Amino acid sequence: MIVTVVMASIISLLSAFAGAFVALKMQYDQLRRMQAHNEGWERAQEVHQRDWEVKQEKYAAEVETRLTQKVQQMQKAWAEWEAKDENRTAIWPKAIFVMLN
User: Fold this and answer.
1) Which of 44, 55, 64, 67 is 20 to 30 Å from 36 at the Cα level?
2) Handedness of CA 35, 40, 41, 43 (dihedral sign)
3) What gap in Å lies between CA 31 and CA 37, rounded to an integer?
4) Spacing of C-alpha 43 from chain mean position
C-alpha cells in the first residue's frame, strides 16, 4: 500500500513538473513572439521616422531656396529703386534752380 502511495506521489510530482515545464515553454514561446512583433514594430517606426526626417529636410531645403530667391529679388529691386532715387535726387536741385530762375 505504501509503495502504491509513493509511486502515485512520484507520478503526480513528475506530472506536475511536466505540466509546469509545458506551461513555461508556452509562455516562453508567447514571449518570443511578442518580442519579435515589438521589434518589427520598432523597425517600422524607425523607417517612418527616417522617411519623415528626409521629407522635412527636403521641405526645409525647398523653403530655404525659395526664401533665398525672394531675398535676392528684393535686393535687386532695392538696388534698382536706389539707382532711380539717386537719379531723382540728382535732378531735383537742377529742376528747382531752373524753376526759380
Assistant:
1) 55
2) positive
3) 10
4) 13
Residue 45 has which C-alpha cell? Answer: 517606426
- Share of the chain residues as helix, strand and coil, in percent rounded to the nearest 5: 100, 0, 0
Distance CA 9, CA 27 (A): 27
Cα 19 from Cα 35, distance rounded (Å): 24
Q: Retrieve residue 56's grid coordinates.
A: 522635412
C-alpha cell at 33: 513572439
For the stretch 34-69, pLDDT in tens is 999 999 999 999 999 999 999 999 999 999 999 999
More confident residue, 74 or 98: 74
